[in-house]
Amino acid sequence: RKLFFDTHALVCLLEENGFTTQQSEVIVSALVKIMNNNLDMIYKDMVTKVQQEIALQQVMSHIGGVKKDMIILEKSEFSALRSENEKIKLELQQIKKQVMDEITKVRADNKLNLNLEKSRVKELHAQQDRALTQTDRKIDTEVADLKTMLESHKLDNIKYLAGSVFTCLTVALGFYRLWI
User: Fold this and answer.
1) Are 36 and 80 in the same domain?
2) Which of 14, 65, 116, 146 could form a disulfide with 19 if both were Cys (CB 3.0 to 4.6 A apart)?
3) Backbone dihedral region of 18: left (phi > 0), alpha (psi from -120 to 50 degrees) or beta?
């Protein structure tokens, strides 16, 4: 393994700072052991490039298997769903046709009933108009009869009045002759 520091330079530095050669070498060897143990721990968690490529190939083959399974499922399950969907579409079209036929039938019945009611109302209005016309004619006839009777009475009254006036004049002239 490569060490990223100079062990001899570290021993010399420790000796310059008051350590003995034996103490310096023990400290440096302890540091090297600690570093080697740390590197071993790090290397245990790490994967090599070869291991990474093997894992990648395994994942890719698993993805390929899943794709094949999906294609098989699509062909079997989705085709069943599609056929069921087609059946439902056909049933919906039949129901839609039946509903449209019923709507057309109800519309025709309603139009017929409406036309019958219109003709009944027109006939009723015509009867009412005839009855009103007859009533108007009767009223006009009665008014004309009343006017005729009034004129006849007026003429009779004028005759009686004239007769009365002449009678009074005759009586007055008779008295006048008698007095003169």
Assistant:
1) no
2) 14
3) left
